[in-house]
Amino acid sequence: MVRIIGILIGLFFSGWLLVSFGMGAVEYVTNPPVETAEHEFHKEAKDISFTSDGPLGKFDRQQLQRGFQVYKEVCAACHSLRLVAFRNLEEIGYNEDEVKAIAANWAIQTPDIDPATGEMSSRPPLAADKFPKPFANNVAAGAANNNAIPPDLSLITKAREGGAPYVYSLLTGYQAPPANLPKANQPGPGLHYNPYFANLNLAMAPPLAAADMVSYSDGTKASIEQMAEDVSAFLIWSAEPKLEERHQAGWAVLAFLLIATILAYLSYRTIWADVKAEKKKKSSEA
Amino acid sequence: MSFPWAKQYTPTTEFGQWMDKQLPLPRFVYNSVGAGYPAPRNLNYMWNFGSLAGLFLVIQIVTGIILAMHYAANSEIAFDSVEHIMRDVNSGWMIRYAHANGASFFFIALYMHIARGLYYGSYKAPREMLWLLGVVIYLLAMATGFLGYVLPWGQMSFWGAKVITGLFEAIPFIGKPIQELLLGGFAPDNAALNRFFSLHYLLPFVIVGVVIMHIWALHIPGSNNPTGVDIKGPQDTVPFHPYYTAKDGWTAGLALIFFTILMFFMPNALGHADNYIPANPLSTPAHIVPEWYFWPWYAILRAFTFDFLFIPAKLLGVLAMFSAILVWFFLPWLDKSPVRSGSFRPKFKVFYIILVIDVLILGYCGGAPAAEPFVMISQLAAAYYFAHFLIILPLLSRLEKPEPLPNSITESVTGKPLTTAS
Q1: Among B264, B275, B307, which residue's Cα sits nearest to residue B78?
Q2: Structure ipTM
């Protein structure tokens, strides 16, 4: 009885799926899906590597500091970094006094309550504070940016398909729209063509428009590519500050497990030796 | 298991005898995973995934309990509390990555364990109850995995919760109330997050309970084996300890090596980038996909694109998706072939390999965007999936002529007939 009911249900599901397949196939042939311009013109992220890549990857602290400088002098005007605190900058090589100075001189103030009156007020950030947001809220952010809210950058290299190479590609990928771009996909007012962006046009104006927008203290030449690479590396750190710790711990755990597993394997061989010997006799007899 | 040749537990110390009289816990352990449990001598490496699933269940529970000490189940701060774990809690990143990737390894072990059971006929008499309990564990694990993915309250958490609870909406009349009951509102919000957290903490312990029954049910008939032939004498068996504890032990190390590589060197490879964006009810991600271990079922859900008479396609898809797993509950009675092991069923073997490839194809399509040609491919693959369990297996048990079975496990291993001394 179970089998008869089962066969009937099976015939229904499988049959209807085959009919659906047939109808879908007819539709597919008679009315093939048109390739969208987003699909045709969209480019995969550029091939670029960072020192933090791979299981042995480490941060280049000099580069992270350069990247932080780009964030501070260019990106921070619009993009928040709300999950990172000033004190975290010690992890990329600044000492305590430098961190205090960076916090105290930050262009945006940290909202607070006036200790005397209880009124809303603001004060210069302290090392323990997270980076203050450039806009009080999303409405203010949208109003100042043609209704496009600049995303928070703390996790951006983990929150985008393609990671840091995508960020780098986006920063360096602005260009004039190609001649054969359909009219519907031409950048409208306030939009900028960038083939690395999923729908080809984004509201952010090219942030690294010219070389030497920042002047690096370590003497590195601030080309657009250099600045983009440095800030992308900085954003890998901001998204995954424990990356180096993770890689180190991974190798230690792996070394321990390899030894333990080899020992466990050898004891397994020893314990099974008598049973396996019986089995070997069979193959030698045959 | 009460084979007459099973070694008996005899406490040697005075304390052991005293303990055995009052609470025979050592005897219980001895008889379930010790020398008192005779296991077939010919179990191959496919038999290692049961204990491996158990190991990863323990890892999930331990890491999960620690995460719960630092996580806040409130839609305002849940996302930031996860980042607090990643940045400020000592070794919090390790605990969280172990938990997120441990779920994947738990499911890998479950899928291998299920595939083993399907091939070697472990669901057949006298092990039907063992199989049924296993399916219950799998269903509970899926529910737990889904609930857990919602907790970080990222974009994919939110929209996954919306899509999956939205499935209930397809049920006529009572669907909408059920969805609202599950969510505690009209859309996922704080109420949903709170109850999801509560249930995500509860269900693993329910799983542990069913696992205990699963192992209990295993010990009544004892383990199946690659020949599918019953144990006939002491020569067919080896004591579980030290033989299988040693074998499970070293493969556990091997599995942990793979686990380490994944969680320390590519911890986000199986995740989705969108879940690092805080949940935003006003912005729908371009592709809403569940975690990889749901992909085959997600493909079946999306394979139904046309209404059948008065039944809407969405309802058909929901029914089919649940049926695809529920059919396993009827498997022992759908496949009536008296031969357990697929090794001696020449035609079954072919269909089994097709099924494995078919489920892999379904999995690939389930993770791909809902566009052609993936929908058409999933329709064909889903059609085979149902045909395999509901049409092919019932007919095959009548039509197929199995190959001759070995007389005993010992004969199949050593080539010499079993000498029955007992």
Answers
A1: B275
A2: 0.93
Question: pTM for this structure?
Answer: 0.95
Structure confidence at residue B422 (pLDDT)? 45
CB A91 within 8 A of CB A241: yes
Which of B250, B262, B358, B378 should we substitute to test contact with A (largest number of A Cβ atoms within 10 Å)?
B250
Three-state DSSP class for residue B275: helix
A77-105 tens-digit pLDDT: 999 999 999 999 999 999 999 999 999 99
pLDDT tens figures, B88-103: 999 999 999 999 999 9
Q: Are B92 and B121 in contact (CB under 8 A)?
A: no
Distance of alpha carbon B150 from its chain centroid, rounded?
20
Using CA coordinates, name the residue in chain A closest to B265. A55
Q: Does the active-site annotation cover B248?
A: yes
- Nearest Cβ partner of B334 from A3, A83, A271? A3
Q: Which of B124, B236, B248, B274 is catalytic?
A: B248
CA A125-A126-A127 angle, 5° bins: 125
- What Å distances lie between residue A128 and A98, A99, A132, A238, B389, CA to CA? 13, 10, 11, 16, 61
| Structure-token match 């394997």, residue found | A265
> Distance between CA A125 and CA A103 in Å, rounded?
5
Tens-digit pLDDT profile for residues B309-351: 889 999 999 999 999 999 999 999 999 999 999 999 999 999 9
Return d(Cα A255, Cα B5) in angstroms, integer. 42
Query: Whole-angstrom Cα distance, residue B328 to residue B143?
Result: 17
Concatenated DSSP letters of A46-108: P----TT-STT----HHHHHHHHHHHHHTGGGT---TT-BGGGGGGGT--HHHHHHHHHT-SS
For residue B390, give the DSSP letter. I
How is residue B238 written in tokens?
């080896």
Q: Where are the alpha helices (DSSP H) in B184-312?
A: 190-219, 245-265, 295-303
